[in-house]
Amino acid sequence: MNTEKTDYPFTLAGAPDYALVNITIPAGKTLKAEASSMAYMDSSLKMKTKMGGGFKRMLSGENLFVNEFTAAEGEAQIGVAPGTPGDIRHLYLEDETVYIQNSAFLASSPDLQTGIEFQGFKGFFSGEKIFMIKCSGTGDLWFNSFGGILEIDVKNNYVVDTGHIVGFTGGLTYDVRPVGGLKSLFFSKEGLVCRFSGEGKIWIQTRLAPAFVTWADGFRRIEKKKDN
Questions:
Q1: Is residue 147 assigned to a domain?
Q2: 142 neighbors 127 (Cβ within 8 angstroms)
Q3: Fewer CB atoms inside 10 Å of the end CB: C or N, the chain?
Q4: Domain assignment present for 166
């Protein structure tokens, strides 16, 4: 896994709060991007919409479609941005596998295989969505988060709140459990955590969307009903 190697030169802008990635697509090459993520592009790019992930992707709550942008007339640039405020990270996989949360996929080179993976009962008990995106093979991958992204090296065991997980490498295993006993599960507001084992990397996001919604709700203006 390499963070410097790339077949698609790129630059990041607005990171880590409102990140956007500007990607150069080499002549004759194609880039896969999440539907509705294109912010701008050279007019020479040709766009094609394909179904990605099929029925599993629909069940995961994600968009059924992925857009492909092809530089048919020479090298071209495209700006890709996620729907939520936060950071973007890039990885170059070399016959490797990474799992990312189902809302984190942003773009990839066409040779990288992406598919929906069922988490089984781990996902049910975690309270999170039960699907993740498996990215495997060789090629470029860009993924995003809500908030900043922190990379953690795991060499034995590590505990992460389920909602903060953005992704992890394929060599790690995990199980889901309360951070403490049953009392802490219901009264500490810490909820459930993933306890990872093995060697690999975890990417976590610094903010939680549900927590932000709860905070913002306190500033919501409520109109009083008029008496008849």
A1: yes
A2: no
A3: C
A4: yes
